[in-house]
Structure formats: C-alpha cells, structure tokens
Amino acid sequence: MILEIFSRIVVPIDVLGFIVTNVLAQDAAAPEPTFVEKLFSNPLLPIIVIIFFFYTMLLAPEKRRKAEEAKLLSSLKKNDRIVTVGGIHGTVVSVSPDSDVVTIRCDEGGNTRLKINRSAVTTIVNPNKESKESGRKDADSSTKT
C-alpha cells in the first residue's frame, strides 16, 4: 500500500522533471534574437512612432506657418498692397516697426484710411503676379470672341 502511494507521487514528479529539463534544453538551444527582432519586441516602439508622426503631421507645419506669418508681418512697408482677415483690400500708408497698428488706404482716391492691427494682415498682394494673371485673363477672353 505504501509502495503504491509512493509510486503515484514520485512517478509524476519524475515525468514533470523530465519535461522541464527538455523544455529548458530547447530554450538554451534557441538562437539569439537579432537587432531588428529586439527592436520590434520593444513595447516603447509604438509610443515613439506615434510621437514622431504627431510632431511631423501637426507641430512642425504649424511652427513653419507661424514663422512665415511673422516674417510676412515684419516685412510690411509703405505702398504694399495687402488683404486683411476681413477681406479688405488696401495699400499700406504708414507702418512703424515697433507699433502693432498699420494705416491702410482703401480707395484709389486716397481719402479713406483705416487703422488696423498688424495681426489682421493675411497676405501681401504681389502687383507683378496680379498683372500677369489679369493679362492672361484678357488674352483668354480675346481669343474666345
């Protein structure tokens, strides 16, 4: 009876020991993972990729746009043709580098002047570009008639 109980306890432990020994031997024989395998098994990789795409898609273009806008506002000078945020077209009459106020002329006669904030200027209209476009439109319309 004791022999029977002993064999029921010892034999499973012996089999378990054999299985554990074989599994450990297989793990020891497994090759070392390569650099790429180690890199892709890193749990921080998805977080780093998300931060990289967030920066390149959102932050960098916004930073570039703000720098271009600051350059545009600092380059304002007298007789520049501009368009404001509200869609008002005009010509700069006076601007000082240390002031946030720009005076523009809205009509061709020169009687109507507006004082606007420098930050309200969205674009500086290039007269050469405008004349080329109007010349192209005139040429297109003359060929159609």
Automatic annotation (TrEMBL):
RNA-binding in keyword set: no
Keyword Lyase (UniProt): no
SMART domains: YajC
Superkingdom of source: Bacteria
Stretches the record annotates as Disordered: 125-145
Compositional bias ranges of the Basic and acidic residues kind: 129-145
Subcellular location: Cell membrane
Pfam families: YajC
Residue stretches spanning the membrane: 5-24, 44-61
Any one Gene Ontology BP term: protein transport
Annotated keywords: Cell membrane, Membrane, Protein transport, Translocation, Transmembrane, Transmembrane helix, Transport
InterPro entries given in the database record: Preprotein_translocase_YajC
Any single Gene Ontology cellular-component annotation: plasma membrane
Membrane topology, as annotated: Single-pass membrane protein
Principal subcellular localisation of the protein: membrane
Family: Belongs to the YajC family.
Name the record gives this protein: Sec translocon accessory complex subunit YajC
Originating species: Novipirellula herctigrandis
